[in-house]
């Protein structure tokens, strides 16, 4: 940092700004894993600093098993200190792959700010308080992203239930449709690895052929068909793939028209995503109402599992209604 010393106010300002930069960098680095483990890594490291460890060495915040010294109870205690009492992450991020990397990055930034002169304990405590308070605010913001709540009537055809879910999703419909199809494919083909990417990840960024690839077939999922999507379908065909375009029943005519414009209408399977998912659930349930409820519960639980693993916005998740049967 240069100079002989640093004022407490400047130290706090530098630490907080570096914490914010670190947080944004870590979330952007591994967006697919969410942001909770990053918050936990930061809170745990700062708690070790609070115990007088500064600058921090590996042994101060890393266990003999190469895990960050964190746990669910520790994170709950810290969050409660700043007024957040809801459960956050059961193991405090200890077993999450990216927690160690995140913690190392944070420690590196903090240690680089160590003044040449000793710091009064109260000054360091004040800086730690502000950083933990900000990380707890991020946890609260995350917890406030409420899940979708949807009433499901198992007397309806499952295709209509899927339509009800997508309609209720509103502006989130595109993400919900993508992850519902992914969940359906994962249940239908448990022996295959079904791709799972966040909704905001563009196909082109990952050189992906579409939303899902199952053997020789590319699946595109959209609630708003565009010419650009069907140009991608045409590219898939040129590359030797079979292609299925899934859209809402209300948009089938538009999708057919776009495929026709490109001369590929007879080569792309354009299907209602409600029917694509619904028929599979009905068949798995053997068309028995109690089983329909259980299969829908399986679908929504698989959906939530996939959403939670790749989306930082947990408001895409769906609360599973109690009226759906359990196995």
Distance between the termini: 61 Å
Strand order of the largest sheet: 2-3-4-5
Shape: elongated
Q: What structural class do you assign from the helix and strand content? A: alpha/beta
Largest sheet: 4 strands, mixed
Query: For this structure, what is the CATH class of the largest domain?
Result: Alpha Beta
Number of helices: 12
Give the strand content.
5-15%
Write down the overall mean pLDDT.
89
Radius of gyration: 24 Å
In total, how many domains does the architecture comprise?
Answer: 2
Helix content: 40-55%
Reading the helices and strands in chain order gives HHHHHHEHHEEHEHEHHE
Number of strands: 6
In short, what is this structure?
The protein is α/β, with parallel strands linked by helices. It has two domains: 8-143, no CATH class; 148-319, Trna Endonuclease, Chain: A, domain 1, CATH 3.40.1350.
Give the arrangement of secondary structure elements.
Layout: H1 8-29, H2 36-50, H3 58-61, H4 72-81, H5 99-111, H6 121-143, E1 148-149, H7 158-169, H8 173-188, E2 212-214, E3 217-221, H9 227-238, E4 242-247, H10 252-261, E5 268-272, H11 273-284, H12 289-310, E6 318-319
Parallel strand pairs: 1-6, 3-4, 4-5
Antiparallel strand pairs: 2-3
Helix pairs in contact: 1-5, 1-6, 2-5, 2-6, 7-8, 7-11, 8-11, 8-12
